[in-house]
Amino acid sequence: MIIHKKMDHNSLKLTDEEKLIKIREFKEKGNAAHKEGNFKKAAGNYYRAVLYIKGLSKNCPDVPDLPGAFFAGTIPEPTRKMTPEMIWESERLTCDCYNNLAACMLKESEPKYGRIIEHCDRALEVSPSNGKALFRKGISLYSLGKLSEALAVLKSAPASPEVRRYIELCKAGLKQQDKELTELYKGMFKLS
Fold first, then answer.
1. For residue 182, what pLDDT is reported?
2. Is 156 exposed, middle or buried (0-12, 13-18, 19+ CB in 10 A)?
3. pLDDT, tens digit, for every residue of 102-156?
4. C-alpha to C-alpha distance for 169 and 178, rounded to whole angstroms
5. Long-range CB contacts (< 8 A, 24+ apart) of 152-161?
6. In whole angstroms, what is the distance from residue 121 CA to residue 115 CA?
7. What is the pLDDT at residue 80?
8. Rounded-to-integer distance, Cα 39 and Cα 105, Å
9. Is residue 100 one of the residues assigned to a domain?
10. CB 78 within 8 A of CB 62
11. Can you tell me the distance from the alpha carbon of 144 to that of 79, in angstroms, rounded to the nearest whole number?
12. Does residue 145 come out as left (phi exceeding 0), alpha (psi in the -120 to 50 range) or beta?
């Protein structure tokens, strides 16, 4: 016998205000887990927050923000627009959640640097000068061996001992690459 749960139509379509509440709740849960050192649990909470962020009407302008409109079978009324305060908060939460998700992923035993860069880029879309996102993107690019890109990103990050250390590592790596290329070309064009 298959038992079907009755779906609560209101739980399937939340308003932007309700989504912002959910985002804040998941972010706080993620922050608490991060403080405890449980980075996997923290990342899960930040990821859930990101899913709600993606569902905000400013990110999905074609989807009406009307609970139950889809199920009522009616043509939806014009959607409510997010207030400037809601947009500002959603951008702050977007930056924080993607940035925190990237931070958790950097703690993994085998970080997925490509995904970390994507998360940093999403944070930088709403806050282009965010120092943490720039730093995390820079060290991820460095870890992938993309030294020129890493150097450019790190130079735009706020100065700190860690940023300076990675800038020097990038410069040293680029210098080593140049030396190896010079040796390679010497060997290729050496007359016998």
1. 83
2. middle
3. 999 999 999 999 999 999 999 999 999 999 999 999 999 999 999 999 999 999 9
4. 14
5. 156/129, 157/131, 158/131, 158/134, 160/135
6. 10
7. 61
8. 8
9. yes
10. no
11. 44
12. left
**What is the reported pLDDT for 61?**
59
In this structure, is residue 121 part of a structural domain?
A: no
Whether the pLDDT of residue 185 is over 60: the answer is yes
121 contacts: CB under 8 Å, gap ≥ 6: 137
Q: Rounded mean pLDDT of 8-25?
A: 79
Give the pTM: 0.79
Residue tagged 């050192």 (tokens): 37
How many structural domains comprise the chain? 1
User: Model confidence at 190, in pLDDT bands (50, 70, 90)?
Assistant: low
CATH number of the domain within which 13 lies:
1.20.58
Q: Which two tokens stand for residue 140?
A: 């991820």
CA distances from 149 to 1, 44, 117, 168 (A): 58, 29, 12, 14
57 occurs within a structural domain: yes
Please state the separation of Cα 111 from the chain's center in Å. 14
Residue 44 lies in domain: 1-70+82-108
* Rounded (10°) angle between helices 84-106 and 113-126: 160
